Amino acid sequence: MKVLVVDDDAVARKAVLKSLEDNYQVCTAKNGPAGIEMVASENPDLILLDVEMPEMSGFEVCQKIKSSSGAEKDTPIIFISSLSSTSERLHGLEVGAEDFIVKPFEPEMLRAKLTKLTAYRKERDGLKQQVDDANKAAYQAMSGTSEFGTAIRFVERSHSIGTYELLAAQFFKATDQFGLSCSLMITTEDGVLFFTGSKTNPVVSPLEQELITMLSTAERFNDFGKRTQINYPNISLLVKNMPSDEPDRYGRYKDLLPFMIEVANATVRSLNIEAQLINQSRNLGKSFDIVKQTLMQLTEALQENQESVATIMNNMLMELDEVVPGLGLDDDQETYLIKRIDSAVTEANDVLDSGANLKGSIMNVTRLLDHLVEQQNNMVDKAIASKAVTCEVLEEEGSSQDICNDEDIELF
């Protein structure tokens, strides 16, 4: 893998070269114009670009590369800067960078960033054709409804959506009709999911993920340039091409999008609760199994103890029958002793009989637990089957291809 380092600081170039030379093919440029020339001649797989440089800043270099008509416009760019404010990061995202590293940095952190961005690029390239095909099918199924009608249709569909992936797909289907490029961050029970409606980059870049996360704790609305982020407790929407130069259209979207996001937020909350209940049902079923096994073990132990006691009593009676006549007791003493022993044996047998009744009660409890476990498993199976049916129905309606495939979703 070839990495181009563009930095006017010779010491910084040398430090990056030393950090990467064991694992990467590294070439360097000392300023922006030289870097642009080397992009064309060296065709690097990734560019590390300093922000603060004479002649051309890193932002200008990045914008020029990304606006070109050649293949270099798809080359991932990581900014390296001693500035780490939100405005600097937003500017980096605005001109097309994929990530941002703050000076000074550790070599391990730089290599980790490159590894992550390399994986992102491979995944993006691998999914690009698949996403193109899926979106083409989705567009053919779309009807030319009005903006408000599109929002209402999303709301109607949201009540039957059974997965986060379907929710994102249906939301992007609506925003595509608005002509908006969007990304979503959904907070689930197991973590955070990122989705994008982009047809050219089907994976949310690390820098975009970072910015959405940073702004998700800010105000409900965040406007910066042509970008707007709308935040709700369980979902955040980043619109990357809001028509800020068209007041009427901009105003309509500012009304419609919060309405749609609020409904989506309620759907996410319901899915989270459903996930909790399914997990709780599964855990309850496991607990029932453990209780049942424990009761069965107790029953077996009780039965063994009863059999042991009965054997001991019988052995004692047989021994006394042999020993008592030779003890030299008079008739009254012998009669009393025999009667007392018979009474004790009778009482012991009564206790053993009550133990048998207890065993029957325990068996009734285990049968009840079996019934409860079966009911819990049926509930879980029905919930999972309902989700599968929802996926099939929405796929038939042309919402998207493979949107029920969890393997294509990144969890962070």
Task: Using the 3D structure, state the CATH architecture of the largest domain.
Answer: 2-Layer Sandwich
Biggest sheet strand order reads 2-1-3-4-5
Number of domains: 3
The CATH topology of the largest domain is given as Beta-Lactamase
Proportion of helical residues: 55-70%
**Terminal Cα span:** 26 Å
Task: Give the strand content.
Answer: 5-15%
Dominant shape = elongated
* Count of separate DSSP helical elements: 10
Which residues sit in consecutive blocks of at least 5 with pLDDT less than 50? 138-145, 399-412
Q: Specify the structural class.
A: alpha/beta
Rounded mean pLDDT score: 80
Q: What does the largest sheet look like?
A: 5 strands, parallel
The Rg value, from CA coordinates, equals 36 Å
Task: Note the run of SSEs as H and E.
Answer: EHEHEHEHEHHHEEHEEEHH
In short:
With 412 residues, the protein is an alpha/beta fold. The protein has helices at residues 10-20, 32-42, 58-66, 86-95, 107-141, 147-158, 164-178, 206-215, 247-323, 331-396, and strands spanning 2-6, 25-29, 46-50, 77-81, 99-102, 182-187, 192-196, 221-224, 227-232, 235-239.
What characteristics describe this protein?
62% helix, 3 domains, Beta-Lactamase, disordered C terminus, 10 helices, Rossmann fold, 5-stranded antiparallel beta sheet, alpha/beta, 412 residues, 5-stranded parallel beta sheet
Describe this structure as you would to a colleague:
The protein has 3 domains: about 120 residues, Rossmann fold; about 160 residues, Beta-Lactamase, CATH 3.30.450; about 120 residues. α1 links the parallel β1 and β2. The C terminus is likely disordered. The protein has about 400 residues and is an alpha/beta fold. Strands 2-1-3-4-5 form a 5-stranded parallel sheet, sandwiched between helices. Strands 7-6-10-9-8 form a 5-stranded antiparallel sheet, sandwiched between helices.
